[in-house]
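Long-time lurker. I teach an intro course on protein structure, and each term I like to show students one example going from raw sequence to a predicted 3D structure in token notation. This year I'd like something fresh instead of my usual example. Would anyone be willing to generate the tokens for the chain below so I can use it in lecture? Attribution to the forum is fine with me.
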Amino acid sequence: MKSLFILLLPVLLGPTAYAQSKNPPAAHLAAATRELHNPSSNQVLVIAHRGDWRNAPENSLQAVKNCIALGVDMVEIDLKKTKDGQLIILHDSTLDRTTTGRGRPEDFTLAEIKQLYLRNGTGHPTRHRVPTFEEVMRAAKNQILVNVDQGYDYFKEVYATLVATGTLQQALLKNDRPVGQVKAENGDLLPKVMFMPVVNLGKADARKIIADYQAAIHPTAFEMIFAQDSAALIKSDFRSVRAKGTKVWVNSLWPALCGGHDDDVAVEEQQPQAAWGWLLARGVTMIQTDRPALLLDYLRARQLHK
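-- Reply from a regular --
Happy to contribute to a lecture. Here you go:
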């Protein structure tokens, strides 16, 4: 029955499900960028986790291109470094799960990694290769915003690549370290980039972390993580954060990140209002999802995404 529902979901959610964006990518990027810097807006930005990985290998160029075609606002990617110091797009600490190779990426040169093939979601090899960070940013240029995950350790190299590719205003960097440490390590570059602290609301000092960041650097957004939906900040609907000029980002990827209001509740359990709707009701305006096409349709049907 669940399989049948998933097949029927585009019909249930509305006529535009799975449809490509009607806006040219450059126009869509401009609109998404304006929304990113407008915390008072109730329009919701959709972030695709590791790209459109259900229809292309995760963290592949094709996964990014699919997101552009769908009208996704931002694509999330993960960085690793090769033996010869090149930044590549890879989530895991090893090559084993997502490529035809085995071992740690830092033990191989870029030329060696380029001989490998990416695996799809069922583990089968595809024709796709592991892209470099530069390749992804050139593909994204003037097309889509990019969230650079697992890239803080390469902050200066990331910045240099963004400058070289002319994509500095399209990339959102993130980390969960205290603001004092971030300023000590990369204070000269922070005013030049979009930065998002990651805050676990289950920690006792969550409010202090948020206040310290707001006082020190005024971040573009806060990524809020909460295993339970009873955290004090959630009860205040995140609106105090937005009122101070910062967007609120939540991951609907799996229950421990969003208090159980996740993608599977929306899709497999047929309760989008209990998942995405619950987040929206509390003032969330950036959602990272593993179901970008379906979330887009849900939002467009409610005039919360253009």
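Some talking points for your students: The chain is about 35% helix and 15% strand. The CA atoms of residues 95 and 101 lie 6 Å apart.
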